[in-house]
Amino acid sequence: MRTDDLIIELARRASPVTPLAPPAVRCARWAGAMVLLTAVGVLLLGPRADLARALVQPAYGARLVTTLLTAALASFGAFALSVPNAHRSPLTQILPYAAFASWILLLTALLFSGGEPIGRLLAFPVNWPCGYKIFGFSLIPGVVLFMLISRAAPLQIMQNAATAALAATTLGAVATQLICPVDDPAHQLVGHVLPVVVLAVIGLAVGYRTLERTIARF
Amino acid sequence: MTAEQELQSASWMRLAQTGDQVAYASLLVMLTPIVRQFARQRLGAVPWVDDVVQETLLAVHSARHTWDGRRPFAPWFYAITSNRLIDVVRRERRIATREVGSDLDVDYASTPSAAGQRDDIDVERIHAAVAALPEKQRQVIEGLKFEDRSVRELAGRLRMSESAVKVTAHRGYRALRRMLGGTERED
Question: Which 3 state secondary structure label does DSSP give A99?
Answer without folding.
Answer: helix
